[in-house]
Write a structure and sequence with these properties.
By secondary structure, the chain is α+β, with helices and mostly antiparallel strands. The protein is 29% helix and 34% strand. The chain folds into 2 domains: 24-160, no CATH class; 173-318, Glutaredoxin, CATH 3.40.30.10. It has helices at 2-22, 58-64, 137-144, 184-189, 204-219, 242-261, 273-280, 310-318; strands at residues 25-31, 35-38, 41-43, 47-50, 53-57, 72-77, 82-87, 105-117, 120-129, 132-136, 147-151, 156-160, 173-175, 181-183, 193-199, 225-230, 267-271, 288-293, 298-303.
Length: 323
């Protein structure tokens, strides 16, 4: 009877500790033939498929997600002997180790890997392949808050995460005809892309393009921003003469008439001294049209008159960025 009880106790102990022993297992892994994109852009990521799931190196994932809201930095805590993940930090490759194998099929040790996630210990599903931990992609997605989709016909794994909003590079004011001031950063922040037309009431081509710009602004209302900067309405200073003030008022009147004739409803503003200085370095002729992103980067520049119509020329440029 005692022998039976002892045997039963041994069995119970084995059952009790079974989950611990089952935490680590060996599985066959195969190099993934799938392609990866991040926000629609192709990324060169080496991954392995294990039981239908993609596993990739943590540093490869960090490099791919750099510049998105899911971006993170990877480091190592020597004292705790743990890999560290710090979110909201652009990835910098601090490791000189690049271990990959030419073999397509390899054995992987499956386990839950302890990590430090923003200073707190967490676990990630991992596969240990050739001295390197590969992380399950969807498990990492849950942790960092990005989404993963798959298109079977094209074999594309689509990773999606919003881009990080960077501060605007530009900081100068523009003002309307009544003197109300607007910061360029606030204007550009309203749309992902903004067409800015720097023009003068003195040039025929500037006047000629206004109807086309008005039509384009109406057709792309809500999709892109439109702004006119009337360069020859010069800012007043403490040294401005009566003649300067009179000329400014005359140019404002002319600009209003031209905009009314073109039925232009998008904003047309006058430059401050800082704005005038900025554009003077950028323009060589009138009109000059820029396409800015919301961070103040110039994506396209059109100087003077092109070979194509105004509408077609600017629409073709906008379509590069607005899908």
């Amino acid at each position: 009877m005692k022998k039976k009880i002892s045997l039963l106790l041994v069995v119970l102990m084995l059952v009790t500790f079974m989950p611990m022993s089952m935490a680590v297992s060996e599985e066959r892994s195969m190099e993934s033939s799938q392609k990866f994109t991040v926000n629609g852009e192709a990324r060169d990521i080496r991954a392995y498929i294990i039981k239908g799931k993609n596993y990739l190196k943590l540093r490869d994932a960090a490099a791919a997600l750099k510049g998105t809201k899911a971006q993170f930095q990877v480091d190592y805590d020597k004292e705790k002997n743990l890999v560290m993940i710090e979110t909201n930090k652009p990835y910098e490759d601090l490791s000189n180790t690049k271990i990959y194998s030419s073999q397509k099929k390899l054995w992987a040790t499956m386990k839950d890997m302890d990590i430090l996630f923003n200073g707190k210990e967490r676990k990630l599903k991992s596969a240990f392949i050739i001295d390197t931990n590969y992380i399950e992609l969807r498990d990492l997605a849950k942790l960092l808050g990005f989404s993963v989709g798959y298109d079977a016909p094209t074999k594309i794994v689509a990773i999606t995460s919003d881009k990080v909003k960077m501060p605007c590079l530009l900081d100068f004011e523009l003002e309307d005809f009544d003197g109300k001031k607007y910061n360029i950063a606030d204007i550009l922040a309203e749309h992902e892309y903004t067409l800015v037309n720097v023009w003068s009431t003195e040039y025929a081509q500037c006047k000629k393009e206004l109807p086309d710009l008005t039509k384009l602004a109406n057709d792309y209302n809500g999709k892109a921003g439109f702004l006119g900067v009337i360069h020859n309405i010069e800012p007043l200073t403490s040294t401005s003469s009566d003649y300067d003030k009179k000329t400014r008022e005359e140019n404002i009147t002319t600009a209003k008439d031209l905009l009314n004739q073109a039925y232009a409803k998008y904003a047309n503003l006058c430059p401050s001294q800082a704005a005038e200085k900025y554009f003077n370095f950028k323009i060589k002729a009138f009109p000059t049209v820029f396409i800015f992103d919301s961070e103040g980067n110039i994506l396209e520049t059109f100087i003077g008159v092109g070979a194509h119509g105004f509408y077609e020329k600017y629409e073709r440029a906008l379509k590069k960025y607005i899908k």
